[in-house]
Design brief:
- This protein is mainly α.
- The chain has a domain of 101 residues: Four Helix Bundle (Hemerythrin (Met), subunit A).
- Helix 2 packs antiparallel against helix 5, helix 3 packs antiparallel against helix 4 and helix 4 runs antiparallel to helix 5.
Length: 153
């Protein structure tokens, strides 16, 4: 009876949604501009898992437009970010194995997109979780972000 008058029950105006997107984009651009190479890869992993969660929610809600955007974002992060950043000359067997894993995950994402397959999405998350956790667990010396000695005192 009184719900429509509640300030908490109003839809967000289109202009406010657009501004929200602008603020989010500025935040991402600021993070990228100030990030080390290690942090850039961390941002890629964070973006991938965010896209996978969005795709899952969109499949469950039968929101195919959102699903398509989320799946496209996840695929681009894998192919144009993670896979493209591998140095297969210097990285040896590890880089080759990651390249193959990323290729497989891309294939499963395409299949998940075509079939609205939540189990394929879960498989992708399961496969990428140990890589993400290992990347996040790298010590500061390996990441190249160790503090100067005078700061460590």
């Amino acid at each position: 009876m009184y719900a429509p008058a509640s300030p908490f029950n109003r839809p967000i105006p289109a202009g406010a949604r657009a501004l929200s997107g602008v603020y989010r984009q500025v935040g991402v651009e600021t993070s990228v501009a100030n990030a080390s190479p290690h942090e850039l890869v961390k941002l890629l992993f964070d973006g991938l898992f965010d896209a996978l969660a969005q795709a899952k929610g969109a499949i469950q809600a039968k929101d195919y437009q959102t699903k398509a955007r989320a799946m496209d974002r996840a695929l681009r992060i894998i192919d144009e970010g993670l896979k493209a950043s591998l140095d297969r000359q210097q990285g040896g067997e590890l880089a080759a194995n990651l390249h193959d894993l990323y290729g497989y995950v891309s294939l499963r994402l395409i299949q998940a997109n075509l079939r609205d397959d939540l189990s394929a999405l879960a498989e992708c998350a399961t496969l990428m979780t140990p890589i993400r956790e290992a990347w996040n667990a790298l010590p500061a010396e390996v990441r190249g972000t160790s503090q100067p000695k005078e700061m460590m005192a």
